[in-house]
Amino acid sequence: MNDSQTDEAHAPAEVEQVRQTVPAYSWYALGVLVVVYVLNFIDRQILSILANDIKLDLGVEDDYLGFLYGTAFAVFYALFGIPLGRLADSWKRLRLMSIGLALWSAMTALSGFARNAATLTVARIGVGVGEATASPAAYSLISDWFPARLRATALAIYSSGLYLGGGVSLLIGGLVVENWNAAYPDGGPLGLVGWQAAFLSVGIPGVLLALWILTLREPVRGAMDGLPTPEDPHPFRGFLEELVQVIPPFTLIGAAMRGGGALAVNVAGAIFFAVLVVLLSSLVPATSALVPGVSDQWLFLGVGYYAVFSWTMSLKSRDLPTFRLTWGSPAFLTVVLGYGTVAFVAYSAAYWGAPYAERALGADKSDLGWFLGAPSAVAGFLGVIGGGRVADFLLERRPTGRVWVVMFGLLSSVPPLVLAYNTSSLTIFYIASFLAQMTSASALGAAAASSQALVLPRMRGLATAIFFLSTTLIGLGIGPFMAGYVSAVSGDDLTAGIMSTLVAVPIGFVLLLAALRLVPAAGATVVERARAAGEELR
Fold it and tell me: What's the sign of the alpha-carbon dihedral 366, 416, 407, 149?
């Protein structure tokens, strides 16, 4: 058993804990993390209110806009989340978050200087890499600032930044675009138009926020669980190991280092995903592909899924306990994949809501900020906080309490979503969108806390990265593109696009039914299963 696995023999299970008091500083630090996450989603979601302007200026179609918002961001966000999640488990988490914030803010600002789709895609990739630092570090920090009995609540409060940022982005973007274009109808300084100025207005402030992050105090890792963990003397070693295992084509080197058999499996995986890319590109060709002959959507996703395959195989050989508690745990997988289907529908509706209201219902940009953006921020906040509190309440009464909240978020959001995208009334659209946002948001805190409860403290950063693989490579990577593609081939019919994403609901329902049966036993045997995996390595 190696040093990184010694805690398996001593870590306490997440059962009844001493009801520790939570210092006021923990709440203050959580508030700062919420501000970071708000900016995270302002920078990510502002693309929604700018979509129609970008489409007009750059001459692209809805499938490209879905690709830009989803896949171009999601693949790099997911892949770099793995090595950065490992770094969050071994290095200064606040320092990592500060660097990432500065990077994604700079790349958001760079989007404001884009003159073509290729430049905008590159900037979007940079935003994904930078934002990959935020949640692995934040989830790990929150788990060290708050006891287990309050983690779903604390994670829900942090996650509220997702909805606050997404809502505020529509308000900021709409105001900047309309006022800039009114002041400079032929283009302003440097020839910038409204949508470009909007990117600059939300990207630049992030650099200042990065400095604020550095003023926070790093908590002792694992101390809240009675398992203080010393700092890794070589924190970047693990990061580089993960980088080689997950970023193509270095994955071939990583596989070769594990032996000829591992290399053969890796090459076979690469061939499989390459064939799949070609097949999907021929069956579902993009209407505005940037790479001739191959859809960007499937090329990016193929690379992403191959990279995840490579990393999973390497994790199994390098850290069997972590593999067994994550990829090798049906309970863990049904939770994260089940929530991935919630994200599949929710991300699509969140992104396409503003373009749909503007095109189909004649809404003004400034009105969208006030009547769609601001209410959606409130709805998301209420949903995620309420869902987190209910999840903690139910967990004290039944071990499946959190999973039931995820199930509620999946199913209860469907009726208002169907109503929103099939009404001719702008008022009904706003109300139904509010309800859909609130109900789907209720699942996030419960799903995040469930995934954290199924691993040991030293695994939380990587568990978070795997959790976000589901929300990004499945939810964000496919959902918005699918809605945009169906819209494009249906003659700009966004109703058909959004309705097509509901195919994920029955899949999620089956996964969460399985989770209801698997999670209680898995949560009660975390230490035993990790210890057994460690014994196999002796």
Answer: positive
Each as own residue / partner, the long-range contacts of residues 1-7 (CB below 8 Å, 24 or more positions apart, any chain) are: 1/534, 1/535, 1/537, 1/538, 2/537, 4/319, 4/458, 5/319, 5/321, 5/530, 5/534, 5/537, 7/222, 7/227, 7/229, 7/456, 7/457, 7/458
3-state secondary structure 159-202: HHHHHHHHHHHHHHHHHHHHHHHHHCCCCCHHHCCHHHHHHHHH
Q: Do 379 and 437 meet the contact criterion of CB atoms below 8 Å apart?
A: yes
**pLDDT, tens only, 47-100:** 999 999 999 998 888 888 999 998 999 899 888 988 888 888 888 999 999 999
Question: What pTM value is reported for the model?
Answer: 0.82
Q: Which two tokens stand for residue 411?
A: 């199913």
**Measured CA angle at 249 (ends 88, 131), to 5 deg:** 35
Residue 372 in tokens: 């769609």
**R_g of the chain computed on alpha carbons:** 22
CA distance 125 to 295: 17
Contacts of 100 (CB under 8 A, 6+ apart): 84, 130, 131, 132, 133, 134, 137
Q: Which of 340, 337, 293, 317 is nearest to 479 (CA)?
A: 340
Whether 474 contacts 28, CB under 8 Å: no
Q: How many CB atoms lie within 10 A of CB 506?
A: 11
Which residues are CB-neighbours of 484 under 8 A, at least 6 positions away?
61, 62, 63, 64, 65, 66, 67, 352, 497
List, as own/partner pairs, every contact residues 113-119 make where C-beta atoms lie below 8 angstroms and the sequence separation is at least 24, other chains included.
Answer: 113/190, 113/192, 113/196, 114/196, 116/58, 117/58, 117/60, 117/64, 117/68, 117/288, 117/290, 118/290
* Integer Cα distance of 379 and 398 in angstroms: 27
95, exposed or middle or buried, with CB in 10 Å at 0-12, 13-18, 19+? middle
- CB distance 309 to 254 below 8 Å: no
Confidence of residue 21 (pLDDT cuts 50, 70, 90): confident
Backbone angles phi, psi at 514, to 5 degrees: -65, -40
Residue 116: CB atoms within 10 Å: 12
Task: Give the torsion sign (CA, 275, 278, 279, 281).
Answer: positive
Which uninterrupted H or E stretch holds 3? none
How far is residue 61's CA from residue 296's CA, in Å, rounded to a whole number?
13
pLDDT of residue 406: 96
Do 157 and 386 contact (CB within 8 A), yes or no?
no
pLDDT digits (tens, 9 = 90+) for 311-325: 899 988 888 999 999
Q: What is the dihedral sign for C-alpha 449, 451, 453, 456?
A: negative
Q: Is the sign of the CA dihedral 470, 473, 476, 481 positive or negative?
A: negative
